[in-house]
Specification:
With about 350 residues, the chain is an alpha+beta fold. It has helices at about 25-40, 75-90, 110-125, 180-190, 210-215, 230-245, 260-265, 290-295; strands at about 50, 55-65, 70, 75, 95-105, 130-140, 145-155, 175, 220-225, 245-250, 280-285, 305-310, 320-325, 330. The longest helix has 18 residues, at about 110-125.
Length: about 350
Amino acid sequence: MSIQCPTPNHEDEVVLLGHGAGGRLTAELLEGLVLPAVGGGTGPLEDAALLPAHPSLVMSTDSFVVSPLFFPGGDIGSLAVHGTVNDLAMRGARPLALSVSLIVEEGLPLAELRSVMVSLGKAAQNVGVPVITGDTKVVGRGAADRLFVNTTGIGQRHELLCPSAASARPGDAVLLSGPIGLHGTTVLSTREGLGFESDIASDSRPLHRLVRALAPLGEAVHVLRDPTRGGLAAALNEIARDSAAAVEVEEHAVPVPEAVASACDLLGLDPMVVANEGCLVAFVDAGAAEAALAAMRSLPEGAQAVRIGEVLPQGPRGRVTLRTLVGARRIVEMPLGEQLPRIC
């Protein structure tokens, strides 16, 4: 079984799975092709964007191509809602409305489509965000893999919050709201029949309530990011790059569930690059770190929140280092491509 995206040969001039994985290949595709074509690329690439004429409003869009459609802890329907709500939350916004568009392959059982849509509707209802518009397309057999879901969200920013990937500062504490690696290993295990899914479940859940709990800290909250594609390693590298910051993380402080560690050991994966769908990274002023942890721990989705590192006052800008269990330091590289394709 091969789960590693191939190393690209740029002479081939074709799109690879790794181009959609949130790592270095994605950055190359965006910077070299997508952004120049649409006149973008003037600032950090955030999870969601402030509307130019209405900076209190935030917008995000995402497409979900997870395989399989159903997995322990969730499915493509609830995942689409949670992922979009979380992207809005990472810009300090509460969700106001969603759109949902479906691309359905001919031959998908209606019972499966119904289950996905019921789950999506329940997830939106639980968040308290209405689905107000959408679209449905059906394509021929083989033209898509069963079902793809696209969602767009509109949110309103909490007045006191304006987090950005470019706002990390020397001395900031790096906080993590919960354990890593659950979503990616669950989806992979379910897809490949590895058996780990009996011990783990996806962490897919909305994070807007965590952000609301952090809102009273206001300007002390500098960065929020949910480490989805490319995992914690990609999220930290994006923040370090966009903030020109030197970030250091303590390996012993990063919570990795035992089942995730076992699966990663067996498969040769690094939990730091495995996708998550229910935790966030927060960079906050050091003086507000304990208050931020207390706020997150007051909610079930942040009960296991921990401090995992800091932004160093000095050091190579744009670099993430990991202090290992034996006290050595190693560089945490931006992933090239996704080791686990089709997980979100």
